[in-house]
Amino acid sequence: MSSATPAIAGTTARRPRLFDWRVRFGVLALIWGFSFVFIKVGTEGFAPFQVTFGRLLFGTAVLAVAMVIKRERLPRGRRTWLHLTVAAFLLNALPFSLFSYAELTIPSTLAGICNATTPLWGMLLSLVALSEDRPTRVRAAGLGIGFIGVLTVLGAWQGFSGLDVTGTAMALLASFSYAVGWIYVRRTLAGAGASNLSLAGSQVGLATLQLAVVTPLFTSLPSSVEVVPLLAVIALGALGTGYAMLLQYGVVAEVGPTTASMVTYFIPVIATAAGVALLDEQLAWNTPVGAAIVLAGAALTQRRAPSRHPKTTIRATATATAATPAPSPAPDRLPAGRA
């Protein structure tokens, strides 16, 4: 599949958690890893736009319930809502739709690996768009290594034989859209004055409205509704978009964005295992090898240069936006929704 303001670390006492953050971290990785299987199964009974609309609708429902329970207010200000509308398109409506269309022709395993390229795109864009985030040599090397991994996954030396170019390009474009969205929200929604949950819920809700307009224009109602694809879409939205974001909110609040962002590196592994085990998708040797190279490169791009001012570094780390499977509108905000 992401939003922003006051720092996550609050001044009030934290409530005791029912489950250790490691358990919730593992559940989060499983949900997001299985999302690609849910997309594949969903497209077997519904058009891609319908899968995306259902995903956003059920995700919005979960977040709306959470907002009511926590008595969260909607964001204020026309400017904030305008930026949220753009963020909803870049971080939810567009990438979710692209992944749904991509999985019509490519395996869920490949879609999951393409999703892991988001930190690489973010690093590449930061060279131009974020002057304060200039790369070190290590991070630049990570960018190069990551894209070598992409070429390995795609089997470039074979001329991309047997690969659906259009579907793969859509999956990579979806990941690129996440990276563009991250940069946009970091520049526009910092200090928006609303809570993480309020901004994220509003963002997903706006994306739902966008798909509500687009879907009827390009699709027609299915003649029949199959149970399994419907359940897959419900799970994709309620778990992969709604509940997963709430889980990540708790993990980031408890252990910080840097540790929470490590879930990124488990998603393609789980997506690959799920695709092979549940959908009987086939793997050539270059797919897992290339995926490992992509993840290694992505990890290197997230390394920060050591600061000469330890106190400043600690404070920045507590509020900085890390590369997570779901984008964030500001350095101290949570991402809302990710495939």
Can you walk through the features of this model?
- The protein has 339 residues and is mainly α.
- The chain contains 13 helices and no strands.
- The chain has helices spanning 21-42, 48-70, 78-102, 108-115, 118-129, 137-154, 165-188, 196-218, 227-255, 257-260, 267-279, 286-301, 310-319.
- Helix 4 (108-115) packs antiparallel against helix 11 (267-279).
- The protein is globular, with a radius of gyration of 19 Å.
- Residues 1-13 and 308-337 have low confidence and may be disordered.
**Helical segment count:** 13
| Series of secondary-structure elements, N-terminal to C-terminal | HHHHHHHHHHHHH
Number of E-state strands: 0
Mean pLDDT rating: 82
The quaternary organization reads as single chain
Structural class: mainly alpha
Helix content: 55-70%
Work out the radius of gyration: 19 Å
Biggest sheet character: none
How much of the polypeptide forms β-strand, as a percent range?
under 5%
Overall form: globular
Task: Show the helix and strand layout.
Layout: H1 21-42, H2 48-70, H3 78-102, H4 108-115, H5 118-129, H6 137-154, H7 165-188, H8 196-218, H9 227-255, H10 257-260, H11 267-279, H12 286-301, H13 310-319
Helix pairs in contact: 1-4, 1-9, 1-11, 2-3, 2-8, 2-9, 3-7, 3-8, 4-7, 4-11, 5-6, 5-7, 5-12, 6-12
